[in-house]
Design brief:
The complex is a heterodimer of chains A (257) and B (276). With 257 residues, chain A is of the alpha+beta class. Chain A is built from nine helices and 13 strands. In chain A, the strands form two sheets. In chain A, strands 1-3-4-5-6 form a five-stranded mixed sheet, with helices on both faces. By secondary structure, chain B is of the alpha+beta class. In chain B, a hairpin with a 2-residue loop joins strand 2 and strand 3. The chains are: A alpha+beta (257), B alpha+beta (276). Strand 6 of chain A pairs antiparallel with strand 7 of chain B, so a sheet runs across the interface.
Chain lengths: 257, 276
């Protein structure tokens, strides 16, 4: 990225930071970032004015990093949020935060891997410290999630033109595909009356497939997914591959607080 | 007293102004490494743009807080589309009131409230193998892949001393064994060097007389940090594995002034493992 400059945040940068958030190209799931989020993030105790960094090139803001200094027997510089338009800006902001910590006699720097950086290359001389920490998720209602995951055009390409019916823990979720898009109906038709593609799966198994912790083919072989009609198996497997999210969620330190 | 009677003496209510100080004290009591101070609480709750009073669930018994869980309703962006979620956190049950089924009650109530408020996913952070992790697994939660946390250590001495001190502080048996140890035990990490006596003294703990019993020095290379993290955070097998890996890769060396001193430290180690 040409002429990338790392500098301190100024109040007049706020609209551009909000623009950076809204024009995000991050593919993995992440928490919504907006003006309120940024205000909240920068009000984190021990975030100083000079510990908010901006990566700017020409007339655009390419990234923002918020560093909090915490004392817990030793001093740690915690990068509570690091958000950028691409990897170069992320890397430059990370280096700046480390440099700031060195200059201010801070004993360690902590960060959650940002969206674009390749962790295996960037964090070679860093230590992973969350081996036992996990994030867990449970579905409460599946329709809005399916709405976000299913793309009508992609489904038409794999030969699913009308839709299909998920039967999850005895609850039917009908996915209708029309010219205008996808329509999800919870508790619609009974599966006995359904003559199209029918997929029987528990909500938990479906979630495991969707969030990439279970391979759909393994789930099919172990009968956690049941598909009516041999001719539909391949299409459903392709559909699950389309809706599956393989990338790890981008979660900043501030998000998990 | 049956389960129903036990649960009847506890009442569940939302947050009300005036609870702040009690909540901070309660969370600090329940979280072994400490939760934080009032400033931290104000930031995490009232200042949070997603904060609503009735999204803080409090269990009370005789006007004393015995359970807490916070819920933040947020939006997750998946492939450019907004998905409403509920982030559940700061779950705590008073140590004297555990095994009464309070966590289960809190969990059910928060999940119902999250669904009622339109969240389609409930999210929570847990330590693998903990009671809450196992409970969540049984109640339909799955683990998801998410970005990892990394640390870059600049001042190894301070960082390492604090980690060792915290590691000992969390383990009562280890603490009493080290207090009874007559040998002077020194830890070296890169260029940093400190004695365990010095460390325990700092925490106002006294050691047994050690002048005549010699000394043992455990010398760790800076590159041993990943194994030390593994040792500190892993289960028994991982602890053993990382210790062996450190010894065989020669990232950890042991020097001793006399065989007796080493024997005393080794015996303390064996007793520690036997009692664990």
């Amino acid at each position: 990225m040409p002429n990338l400059v790392i500098r301190n945040y100024k109040l007049e940068d706020l609209p551009d930071v909000v623009k950076l958030y809204s024009s995000s190209q991050v593919k993995s799931p992440f928490f919504l970032r907006d003006k309120d989020y940024f205000d909240y993030c920068t009000s984190y105790p021990s975030v100083k004015e000079d510990s908010i960094f901006i990566a700017a090139s020409e007339h655009r803001i390419e990234g923002v990093a918020v560093l909090a200094i915490i004392h817990k027997g030793y001093t740690v510089g915690r990068i509570i949020d690091l958000w950028a338009s691409e990897a170069t800006a992320e890397n430059a902001l990370l280096q700046k935060a480390v440099e700031y910590c060195r200059d201010n006699n801070i004993d360690a720097v902590e960060v959650k891997a940002p969206a674009f950086l390749d962790s295996s290359k960037t964090f070679v001389d860093w230590q992973r410290i969350d081996q036992r920490e996990v994030m867990m998720v449970k579905p409460l209602s599946f329709a809005p999630l399916l709405q976000a995951l299913i793309d009508a055009t992609a489904l038409r390409k794999i030969g699913i033109r009308k839709g299909f019916l998920f039967v999850c823990d005895d609850e039917a979720i009908e996915v209708k595909i029309s010219k205008t898009g996808v329509n999800i109906v919870e508790g619609g038709k009974s599966w006995r009356d359904w003559d199209g593609i029918l997929v029987k799966v528990s909500l938990k198994s479906l979630l495991e497939v969707v969030f990439g912790s279970t391979n759909p083919y393994i789930a099919l072989l172990t009968r956690r997914i049941r598909i009516r009609g041999i001719k539909n198996i391949l299409r459903v497997m392709k559909m699950l591959r389309v809706i599956r999210i393989n990338q790890p969620w981008t979660v900043a330190i501030v998000d998990s607080r | 007293m049956d389960e129903k009677q036990k649960l009847a003496q506890f009442s569940l209510r939302p947050f009300k102004p005036g609870d702040e100080a009690n909540l901070v004290d309660f969370l600090n009591l329940c979280y072994p490494g400490g939760w934080g101070d009032m400033e931290q609480w104000v930031w995490a709750y009232p200042r949070n743009p997603f904060f609503e009073r009735d999204n803080v669930f409090i269990i009370e018994s005789n006007n004393q807080i015995v359970g807490h869980r916070g819920m933040h309703l947020r939006e997750l962006i998946i492939r450019g589309k907004r998905v409403p979620i509920a982030f559940l956190g700061d779950t705590a049950i008073h140590p004297d009131y555990r095994a009464f089924g309070l966590y289960s009650r809190l969990h059910q109530t928060t999940l119902k409230a999250a669904k009622f408020k339109g969240a389609c996913l409930a999210l929570t952070g847990n330590s693998r193998g903990s009671i809450t992790y196992n409970h969540n697994k049984k109640t339909g939660f799955i683990e998801i892949k998410r970005s990892h946390t990394y640390i870059k250590v600049i001042n190894y001495e301070k960082f390492f001393q604090k980690q060792v001190s915290d590691f000992i502080a969390r383990r009562e048996k280890l603490k009493s064994l080290l207090q009874g140890l007559e040998t002077n035990l020194y830890l070296h990490f890169g260029k940093a060097e400190f004695s365990l006596k010095e460390l325990l003294n700092r925490d106002n703990l006294t050691l047994a007389a050690s002048s005549k019993s010699g000394e043992v020095r455990v010398i760790l290379a800076e590159s041993s940090l990943p194994w030390l993290v593994e040792f500190a955070t892993g289960g028994k097998l991982r602890k053993m594995g990382s210790l062996l890996a450190l010894l065989f890769s020669r990232k950890m060396k042991i020097r001793f002034s006399s065989a007796l001193a080493l024997m005393k430290v080794a015996w303390a180690g064996v007793r520690m493992v036997r009692h664990a």
